[in-house]
Amino acid sequence: GVGSFLLENLIQKTSELGYNTIIAILLHTNTASRKLLEKFGFQQWGELPEVCEIDGQIFNHLYYGKKV
């Protein structure tokens, strides 16, 4: 519930401040965040393969976006 609360407020504030686009960058293995973003109408706009290494593991960066 906390993630939904924060994302909902972010979307509202973004619109109030006059911005028209929100972009989220996350690791491809973060399925919980992907589902949360999609729940709020975000779409995957891009992917950078194998650009991040954490503790010897290689990850892709996913770019999600939403027009507000």
Structural features, described:
- By secondary structure, the chain is an alpha+beta fold.
- Helices cover 35% and strands 44% of the residues.
- It has 2 helices and 3 strands.
- The protein has helices at 2-16, 31-39; strands spanning 21-27, 43-54, 57-67.
- Strands 1-3-2 form a 3-stranded antiparallel sheet, covered by helices on one side.
- A hairpin with a 2-residue loop joins strand 2 (43-54) and strand 3.
- The chain is elongated.
- The chain starts with a helix and ends with a strand.
- The mean pLDDT is 96.
Q: In a nutshell, what does this entry contain?
A:
The protein has 68 residues and is α+β, with helices and mostly antiparallel strands. It is 35% helix and 44% strand.
Features:
3 strands
- The order of strands across the largest sheet is 1-3-2
Poorly predicted regions are none
* Helix-strand topology string: HEHEE
Name the beta content range.
Answer: 35-45%
Considering DSSP H and I runs of 4 or more, what fraction of the residues is helical? 25-40%
Shape: elongated
- Rg over alpha carbons: 13 Å
The main pleated sheet reads as: 3 strands, antiparallel
Number of DSSP strands?
3
Number of helices: 2
Give the overall average pLDDT: 96
What is the first-to-last residue Cα distance? 22 Å
